Amino acid sequence: STSLTGDSGADMLKILNDEQRAQLTGIIEKQRPALNEIAKVRTEISTELRKSITGETIDKDKVYTLEKRYGELDGQMSALYATTFAAVYKTLTADQKTALIKLRNLDTVPSGSFIYSSPVETPPIPSDDYMFGIGKVPADAGQTMAPATFVDNTTGSGGALGDAAGGGNEALLNQHTAPDPAPICSGKMALTSSVVKAGETIPDKYSRAGAKAGMTTVSPPLAWTGAPANTKSFAIIGWNSVIFWSVYNIPGGTTSLPEDIQGVGTVSQKFITPSEGGPGTFDKHITLYALSANVNVDSSADVETLRKALNAVTLDSATLNYKMTVK
């Protein structure tokens, strides 16, 4: 018997007397109303959050209210368990305590998988490394491309993402993971912008908020210091859940870039303002890579190819983290 297979629960009840047993088994019916309501609350939360898939606006106040109720119900059940077990403990005899301690300290650990006390064949567990940008997305992974309503198909100049002139790279845009933002980060490099400080909200001109207001959005100005002396080139990756900006083979002597950069380096993804699926404040990141050589990858490379190419020659990196607010 071990607690891992569920046998110990039955063995524990055998040690108790009828009144003690009734107190513990009575928890099942007492918690049933809370469990039923939790199932309902979780369904409502999931239904509301799934609106993001189709680009609908999520009612955040409704989600917060439901989450609060979820916490209250969970707390009620925790309190029920704590008070019931405490009450039973106060009535235990010395012999019962000794028997329960022996049961708790069993060192038998079963091998394999169990459903309750019955051994079952261990099911195959597929790797989910691809969700973290490692390896390739499995063919049976389901939908891996963002719905059309989830990504704004507008570049800073108003061209389509798939338009070669616009610099759109759908292999990057449709990846839901960014490359490793800091494979090497010594802390000696610093990346800044004159239009936004770290952790603050960027002006609308450089964000989705500006695009929604009809502005022509552009990439923000950047400046950096502390690059290694043997830096041969730089790369810039703008990312959140997708890569919204990618430029590499920027000359090694460069220390700053103006807003709306043109004609510098190799543009893999022209700066765009992807939709976040609704109003709110969202985290954005721009990572600067100092490289020991130019990156030899096609401008249409996918995220894994780009990540490997950057990591192979990265000397150091720095990231500017900021926020974007969409009304």
Characteristic key phrases:
alpha+beta, disordered N terminus, 327 residues, three-stranded antiparallel sheet, five-stranded antiparallel sheet
Describe what this molecule looks like in 3D.
The protein is an alpha+beta fold and 327 residues long. 31% of the residues lie in helices and 18% in strands. It has helices at 7-15, 18-25, 27-49, 60-90, 94-104, 170-173, 208-212, 303-313; strands at 113-115, 118-120, 190-192, 222-225, 233-239, 243-251, 256-257, 266-269, 280-291, 314-326. The protein has a 5-stranded antiparallel beta sheet. Strands 3-4-7 form a 3-stranded antiparallel beta sheet, with no helix packed on it. Helix 1 (7-15) packs antiparallel against helix 5 and helix 3 packs antiparallel against helix 4 (60-90). The radius of gyration is 28 Å and the shape is elongated. The chain starts with 6 loop residues before the first helix and ends with a strand. Mean pLDDT is 77; it is low at 1-5 and 143-181.
